[in-house]
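ugh finaly. both done.
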Amino acid sequence: MTAKNRRAGDRRGSVFEVGITALRLGLTSFGGPVAHLGYFYEEYVKRKKWIDDKTYADLVALCQFLPGPASSQVGIGIGLMRAGVWGALAAWLGFTLPSAVALSLVAVWLQHASLGEAGWMHGLLLAAVAVVAQAVWEMARKFAAGRLEATLAVAAAIAVLLMPGAWSQVTVIAIAGAIGAIGRRKTLEPSLVGIPPFIRRSTGFLLLSLFAVLLVALPLARAWVHSPLWALFDSFYRAGALVFGGGHVVLPLLEAEVVPQGWVTADQFLAGYSAAQAVPGPLFTFAAYIGMAAFGWKGTLVATAAIFLPSFLLVLGAFPFWHWLRRQPRFQAALAGINAAVVGILLAALYDPIWTKAVNELADFAFVLVAFLLLAVWKWPAWAVVLVSFVGGWLRALFG
């Protein structure tokens, strides 16, 4: 055994310890992806010392480079390095299970609630306006600060508003990536410490190929396999494969897939999205809510597995190629264009369906301004703003 292999072997642990640690994080990690990465750093790097600072930074950079939920992908990567492929699965399951169960229970409760007349329901819709507005603001500052990026963002918003639908969003993302690759060239400083290649290049290539094949084959097979659960798997796989820029971007992609299908109503969709802000763990477990609301527990399992499957294929597949990938200027420039486009797509979603569904009068607008102030200026956590909006909406209906 070489010295390099001995060092890798020293970092190996049990699948059980990975799962238990991830479960504890899944029960306590409030605050969204950026906060999750902070929790991970404290637990995995500083407390347990499973990986060092530089390896963690490189892993975070890789996961931010890929579509999908960055925090969940980082957890998958750490689980892989600690206990192999089963460790990756245990890390994902532990971190995901608490919020998936909680949102499934919320879906069951909302099915028996009177949504149309509930003041708390309107409070949740208004909270969604503030949460998404803050996400758009923060993402625009990061991904659409330059002239080309800002232009792409505005053009993307206009395009998806004029031509709504899931495939129009995919087309806009592809075009923005191509424009970015031509109009910009970005470079990153090479990392001195790389992610250990626990996956062979041949295996990585097969996993990335499977990711691409499923992205194309699932919609084609959907036309022949007339099964609601198959359609659900296709919709959520595509959403998980095309979300660049953060968990909030899953909102417009999923809304275009599930509401026109009649799987959930627009009110149910936005109420669940607000509820997802109030639970710990990854925002992508919103899929569990929609799956339960549409098809019961089978739908929860199918939707949750489908939306996270691209993350497994991409993280495990990209591990062996990370050093080469991050040195490609055109790839980085294309990613900059894609990120600018998703800002525009989220901006369009902020207007329709969120704003048009929630803000009906001046008092609603004032409510949103206060919620946005609490989020963006006073730095309240999203779950606290959602809770205040829930109670405020209920009190307003009670005494209004």
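ok and the 2nd:
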Amino acid sequence: MGAVEALRLVWDEAFTAYDFGVEHPMAPIRLELTARLADALGLLDAAGVHVVSAEPASDELLLTVHEQAYVEAVRRASTRPTLEDLRFGLGSSDVPTFPGMHEASARICAASRDVALAVWSGQAEHGVNFTGGLHHAMPGAASGFCVYNDVGVAIQALLEAGAKRVAYVDVDVHHGDGVEKIFWDDPRVLTISLHENGRVLFPGTGFPEEIGGAQAQGEAVNVALPPGTSDAGWLRAFHAVVPPLLAAFEPDVLVTQQGCDSHVLDPLAHLALSLDAQRASYEALHDFSHRYAHGRWVAFGGGGYEVVDVVPRAWAHLIAIAAHRPVPPGTDVPASWRDYVAARCGRSAPQRMTDGANIDYRSWATGYDPADAIDRVVLATRKAIFPLHGLDPYFD
């Protein structure tokens, strides 16, 4: 075996074929702009970074998490869509059908499986597929812009390869319901989702009392944050829940979903994070992989619909951190990328790799404040989950 790669990174323009059309918010240009910014920052050809593509996954791989009737429906809808597709969540405004939908979705699954196994086998220390993170897809239906659940496929592949415990942390603004559903009753998989409260945001789930199936009580963890949550509150909740559970669970590998639609500029949700807080969470998850998961980290993209100001900078930071080449927040955005954005999108691009935010937050060790809405959310989750892991919900 050759030298261990610092990062196995998925990118190929073929992944932009996952395209619901010009009016859909999940515009594939966000992937292109991310890759171009990472390249302009010198990340794609950095030492230790191996950029890979993938061929579409076989049905055999898809069927590790999806139902056969659903895979057949996706394949059929990719060439001759009908009203019957709606029975499988296909053809809606959220998940319109498009030619080649099966192949484009299956390619993302194969890529996510491949980088996960590269990390598990020791070929790469970390793996990133920012084209993936399609966490809403259910075993038998499409949902929330997601056709196949590449995250579920990757986690299942890790289990089949020998991982005894996989921890999944989802920081997308929407509840990671599809991944949670797939592993609801599997005690080998801990799923943690921090998201905006389902009473005000799709998919309407992800409450503290949703704790896993009968065989996996406490393995589904949900932090349902109120609208308007900003950096300090979000980071307080994140650090009050994620590291204690990872320490107790002792995963063999850490899998994360880095949807950046929690940003204040995102048009589809109501949290108010800065790029700097998002970057801080990526740094923390990288640290957690080394502290709790033997250095094994597999990270995916996900949501994010401010396609110029937010997504490319957020995921370029993710790539840089995973490559052990973090980009200082004050770094100027390369002029070549800004020129490309102006020509391609007809708008100005950000000047720096930061929003200039102060990301201080109070540790849970400072004590619970019943008057604080964030603290009430955090305590509800900790009370539902922590005792099942032998942890104190009130004190660290």
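summary for the 2nd one i guess: The first strand starts at residue 5 and ends at 10.
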